[in-house]
Amino acid sequence: MLFAKVLKYEGDNKTFVWKYPIEDFNTGSQLIVHQSQEAVFFQNGKMLDMFGPGRHTLRTENLPIITSLMNLATGGRNAFHCELYFINKTEQMAIPWGTDSKIQYLDPVYQFPIELGACGEMSIALENAGKVLVKIVGNEKKLTQEQLGEKLRVFVMKYAKSVIPRMIQAQKISIFDLDMYLTELADEVKYPLTEEFKDYGFDLRKFSIMRILKPDEDPNYIKFKQLHYKSVNDVREAEIRQRVGIIDAQTAAQKKVIDAEALARKRMMEGFTYQQEKAFGVAERIAENDAVAQMGNIGIGMGMMTGVGGVLGNTVGGILNDSIAPATEKMSSANNNGGFCPHCGNRYNAGALFCEKCGTKLTKNTCPHCGNELSDGALFCSRCGTKITD
Q1: Model confidence over 152-173: pLDDT tens digits?
Q2: Do residue 289 and residue 174 come from a single domain?
């Protein structure tokens, strides 16, 4: 019978559980457990004594379960038969998983049947060595990370195929938007999966969905994909147009405010107000009017200025006088200097009664009673009926 004197792990870094090849031991042997490991003595489906990191000399004192079970004598050298497992306690990271068949459901947005798959990664760590050895390892002599992933993938499929379509339907997520919900979908799957793993001695540290496998060759999928992205683009284009319109309106409004502020500062620097500026404009238009020589127009202008009181009235009054005076002087000058014959156009001097070129009478006939202007040869006044005598 071969007895081991030094017991230590002889597997590689990718091994999760490793069974020591010899099953006969005796007290006094040296057990070496690495920092990231646990060593467990196991027999007949039952976990016996367990050792953490360090160098241990096997004695009846530190093998209480084995000593009691096998009636080992205290002290001295005792032989015993059992299994020894080294279990890696480090977190097993990036264990891949993927659905082995398609998940079938009805797209909640576009109402067409669809099939999809999913894949991702998970990270686990040892929580209960006894459960792992009994429920997962069994009679295996070695359990690699890849083998562990294959065993756990069954549980992942169980929940992924039921939870993912249920959440899609509940939240009405279109297949074309699924990639935006990978984290939420993974959390929904992880929640029940954590309890399942715990029952097998594992702590599920991380669980992620890396990709949704879509039916890119399915004609229905292609058709609705085109419709989906067209509607998204149309909505986006409308939003952009609306946003640009708002920006343009805001810009125009701001420009008006800036122009108004600039004009207000200009008026302040020049020493007059908006009301005064409007009055200046009125006076200038009156002064520029071609009919300013007509007293009716002047009367209207003067009447309009009469309503302006206070400082503004004084200001406008001065401007009006300065603007109209040259025009009235021009009219008066024309009357004093004579005019032009209405028949031949010859210029005549002031006071002339007849045109010296054609003899046309230059004075107007008026009614002696009402002053109404009479046409040549009139016998009666057209306004009051007075008889006109030569």
Answers
A1: 999 999 999 999 999 999 999 9
A2: no
